[in-house]
Structures are given as structure tokens and as C-alpha cells.
Amino acid sequence: METGTLKKLRTIIPGSLILFGSVPAYTFLTGRPLSSMQGFDWMIAGTGLVASYVLGAIYNLYCLRAIFNGKSHAKITTNIKQRILEIGRTVPFTDERKDQLLRGSELMDVFYSLVDSNDTLKERAKLVRDNGLKWSTVADVTVLGTMFAALYLPLWFTTGYALFMVWGLGAAAVASIAGALLHPRTENKHVQLGNNQLDFIAQHLKDQVSQKVNSL
Fold first, then answer.
1. Engineered SS bond to 11: which of 28, 46, 56, 68, CB 3.0-4.6 Å?
2. 165: closest CA among 175, 173, 155, 177?
3. Which residues of 149-159 are buried (b: 16+ CB within 10 A; e: fewer)?
4. Taking the model in full, what pTM does it have?
């Protein structure tokens, strides 16, 4: 998967989830029964796609995915930084400098520059992006499912509207499964794919890594 495609899907997917999650509110406010909405044609129409993109852009703007994915992202990047240091650092440096490098972005810049300069790593990066979409989508499902459950279940108690209960319980169940079962699997897969890249770097690009890391 190319980077541009990944960015677009990371906008459209959460936007589509927001549209889908808004169905009970739409039927409640308009008085239209759920059965009157034939399939999901309304979601894949041109206006639905535009709405999904706009909603997804707003969702990304406020970094709602990062609320759930923050620790996971830190685990993945910390693993890369530590491995790059282990592979490339051959001159002494202080613990203070090590901490600075692990907190900063320099080591990730070294990693990305190596990936961008090698055809084999570029191909492996496509697998990373494929899994990255799964990883971020699971996070989106968890975050938005929790939000819709927190919205619809109280509304059901207040209004007695049955669809609020169905959507709220369904959203809670899906969010729980995504967060507890699927997210750890995609996170571990991401670490594994990163390690595959780093193993290749250690075997074939060690001199380049040493030159870059020792200059930091």
C-alpha cells in the first residue's frame, strides 16, 4: 500500500464509521424507520463519500485516534529507536545523551532515511503500511464504538427509543472486542514487521547505520 492511499483510507474509514454510527440519531430525528433505508446505498453514494471524508478529516484533526493509540505508538517507535541505537552506535555516549535520542526524533529520521534509500526495505514498508491501516482502523472502531455507546445508552434510558439500545449495546460489544482482542494482535504484528526491517538493516546496512547514528 502506498503512503497516499493509506492517508486517504485513514480519513475515509473513520468518517464512514461515524456515518454508520449516526443511523439511530438520523432515524430518531427524521422519523424514518430503519427498514426504509435500503441497504447502505446512502453511504456509498457520492454525497456519502464526501461526508465520510469531511467527518474523517475532522476526526483526524482532533487526533481522537491518538487517545487510544498513544501507548501503542510509543511502544512501536521505542522499539525501533532502541534497535537502531544497538545496531549503529559504536562510539561512547552518556546516559543523558541516550535518553535525549530515545525521546527525540533523530533515530526515527535515520530509520526512515534507510527505508527510503533501499528497494527491499521499501517493499517491506508496504507490508508495514498494510498492517498500519488495520492497526489504526481497530483503534478507530474502539474509540468510536465507545463514544457511540456512551451517547446512545443514556439516550435510550431517556427516550426509550429501541434503536438507541441496539446500537449502543452493539457499539459497546464491538469496541470491547476490538480493543481487547484485535488491537494487541495488530500492535504485535507491527512490532514484528518493524523488527524484520531492522534485522535486514543490521545484516546489510550496518555501516550506513553506524555512520548516521555516530554523527548524532
1. 56
2. 155
3. bebbbebbeee
4. 0.87
